[in-house]
Amino acid sequence: MGFPVDFLWGGATAANQIEGAYLADGKGLSTADVVAAGSHGVPRELTYVVQEGKYYPSHEAIDFYHRYKEDIAMFAEMGFKCFRLSINWARIFPRGDEEEPNEAGLCFYDRVFDECLKYGIEPVVTISHYETPLHLATTYGGWTNRRMIEFYERYCLTLFTRYRDKVKYWMTFNEINVICYHPWHAGGFGSLEARDGQTEYQAAHHQFVASAKVVQLAKTINPCMKVGMMIAYSPVYAESCNPVEVQMAAEAMQRRHFYLDVQCRGKYSAFKLKEFERKGITIHMEEGDERILQEGIVDFIGFSYYASTVVTTRQNAESSSGNMIRGGVKNPYLEASEWGWQMDPIGLRIILNSLYDRYQLPLFVVENGLGATDSIESDGTIQDDYRINYIREHIREMKKAVELDGVEVMGYTSWGCIDLVSVGTGEMKKRYGFIYVDKDNEGNGSLQRIRKKSFDWYKQVIASNGELL
Predict the structure, then answer these.
(1) Measured distance CA(413)–CA(411) in Å, rounded
(2) How far is CA 154 from CA 89, 96, 150, 375, in A?
(3) Rounded distance, CA 83 to CA 366, Å?
(4) Is 95 strand, coil or helix?
(5) Contacts of 128 (CB under 8 A, 6+ apart)
(6) Which DSSP helix (H) or strand (E) runs through 35?
(7) Residue of 438, 437, 436, 434 lying closest to 456 (CA atoms)
(8) Distance from CA of residue 321 to its chain's centroid?
(9) How high is the mean pLDDT in each 10-residue block of the chain (469 residues)?
(10) Where are the beta strands (DSSP E) in 327-421?
(11) pLDDT tens-digit readout, 86-111
(12) What is the Cα gyration radius of the chain?
């Protein structure tokens, strides 16, 4: 039984974390390009300019822009069926509001897609992944401004038309729910101190409308295109059987489902509308928005999964470190990664079932992996058994969801299949890849690529379609 024969095994990346060449061939500045290392992805004092003496990880990243042939050849050696990557909007429209695209930027992605297809690797493209043309942020206020829908549509029309015969799988926004936590990355506006709810949810509405419109647009250009959404997703557990905690966990999941409900069901949930009412949040909708949302339901659900969350009523309970989206308290039944993320493979099976039961749409695990510090041994090898163990256990639970539970899973792309810059901290030492990149946190290194032990292991997993783990 196992995974379907057309299961999409591969790896995932983001343009601002791998490409580099931040001003090459007519590219404009993006919001990622003004985030210096160590600012943890949330600019608190935005200057909107690149300052001398500061290190900006996105400017060189791992130089995929000049090394894509070498990297894609290594992905092919592992047997990738797909490669998830994103397009840097400012490479196509340097300011974001131009009428005509930058041809040099389009040609770059032509070359990348052609290289993938040469090896039989399907590109899985995220249209907007944590970067917006900086001009759109500074001049228009990013996604707080409804005009962004127009600019995004033009961008998508360009992409869909240009790559109509090269890219089948698209996702409109990376981790769309992150707009309420990291609005600068996800929406091109604000910072932590500026969050007020009203602004973030209005911006999210603009993204919902934009996404729904381009889902429909894609079908007019190539009906075979599949356009999905993408969300940061994890289960929330009650610490005990205390009904109060069970209710807390249920409400936390309903907040996660809000973004899914809009993009997969085409409407705002009653739960979220009541929450808005209590908080005094009013979403301005223009005539036709509700119809657009209903007609622009996505074809599949992509999601990232790294760890689960626990909620409690206990005062002063020890919190779980790691990702601020999840928060919560420590789970005594789980071990934590070096960065404090509690590893919960069974949680992946739980959410696969939860999502499929609720939406009956194909699911795509487009991010999952272990960030860790890797060491090069005296013989030049990198023995990352901890990464193998993490991914192995998650694949096992994903396989159970498919075999035992009947969940429709399209594919699995491990996050950071080649070491890349951390979006949260700008670090290189927090490595996820099967391929090591010689670069440190200060930007020093040869950028040499080295296969880790996990490289050959994942190659075996793909060759056996998940049977040999």
Answers:
(1) 7
(2) 11, 9, 6, 45
(3) 10
(4) coil
(5) 86, 89, 152, 172, 173, 174
(6) none
(7) 434
(8) 20
(9) 94 98 97 81 62 90 98 98 98 98 98 98 98 96 97 98 98 96 91 74 98 98 98 96 96 96 98 96 97 98 96 80 64 90 96 98 98 96 98 98 98 98 86 97 96 98 97
(10) 363-367, 409-415
(11) 999 999 999 999 999 999 999 999 99
(12) 21
- Taking the chain, what is the end-to-end CA distance rounded to the nearest angstrom? 16
As given in the structure block, the two tokens for residue 219 are 């079908």
Please state the length of the chain: 469
Percentage helix, strand, coil for the chain under 3-state DSSP, each rounded to 5: 40, 15, 45
Give the tokens for residue 335: 């071990």
DSSP string, 406-422: ---EEEEEEETSB----
CA–CA separation, 6 and 90 (whole Å)? 34
309-311 and 409-415 strand pairing: unpaired
- Whether 435 contacts 452, CB under 8 Å: yes
CA-based angle 240:241:245, to the nearest 5? 70
Tell me the C-alpha distance between 82 and 12, whole Å: 9
pLDDT at 270: 96
The pair phi, psi for residue 30, each rounded to 5°, is -115, 170
| Dihedral class, residue 322 (left if φ above 0, else alpha if ψ from -120 to 50, else beta) | left
DSSP state of 272: H
Which residues are catalytic, by number? 175, 367
